[in-house]
Amino acid sequence: MTDHVSLVNYSVQGHVVTIEIDRAKARNAFNQQVRLDLFGALNQVESDNNIRIVIIASAGKSFSAGADLAELMTTKAEIETQILEQYKPFLTLISQSDKIYIAAVQGAAAGIGSALALTCDLVVMAQNAFLYQAFAAIALVPDGGATWHVVNQIGYKRALELFIEAQRITAQQCVEFGLANKVVPDNDLRSSAHEWAQQLAQGAPLAQQNLKRLLKQAQRCSLDQSIRLEASSQQHCCNSEDFEEGLAAFSQKRPAQFNGS
Questions:
Q1: What pLDDT is stored for residue 2 in this prediction?
Q2: Whole-prediction pTM value?
């Protein structure tokens, strides 16, 4: 990806890839190199048709402390450009990807780190994990799409309270609010995320791709539009080899072997 020592690790097991942010000494704070390395790793994922499920993780005790404040102080005059040109591309790539992304969150997921976790399709959190929107404490507003994710999930009044008071949201609260899927013991985070990813990787890729797209479209579509989009996707899936394999496996009472075609 790059000639320098990457701050993002990349490992593949079967149809699952784990992308790990590895800047633990700085609590995985996002500087320019992390942004560029992460975007490079994600592009590598998107070009690999063998990959079906992606785990986004971090080394050390924290998922991410958010933006690197030391870097922010030297680049604050260009922060709008930085968000649009260096954060938005990888966040949009995750959101619009055909693949399923799972965030494995331990410790603090602050600022842009929380936005990254919320952008993923599924979120597994360790018991010690929490989302932290500390922007109000330093006279800033949330970014990276955090306002969109949170207000659409928990509503305006609760979102405003959370952001304006710079509250921490515990892992259990995240599940209760619909911001995360599961809470697991701290030591089981990676194994639980990987086990779930491997399980999902056995599913039908075309159906999963269409499902992700349908649900995202349904957030801004009418019922009529959603039915029409579902009909089109269902036809696409019905025409696939995976559908034939699924029927055969069901009738033969054996596990299906889907190939994504």
A1: 41
A2: 0.94
Specify the CATH number for 8-201; select among 3.40.50.300, 1.25.40.10, 3.90.226.10, 3.30.390.30. Answer: 3.90.226.10
Protein fold of 205-252: Lyase 2-enoyl-coa Hydratase; Chain  A, domain 2 (1.10.12)
Angle at 188 between CA 187 and CA 190, to 5 degrees: 105
Phi/psi of residue 256, nearest 5 degrees: -75, 150
Query: Residues 20-35: what's their mean pLDDT?
Result: 96
Question: What confidence tens digit (pLDDT) does each residue in 165-174 have?
Answer: 998 999 999 9
What pLDDT shows up at residue 1? 42
Instruction: Using alpha carbons, list the distances in angstroms from residue 230 to 36, 55, 212, 213, 225.
Output: 36, 27, 11, 10, 9
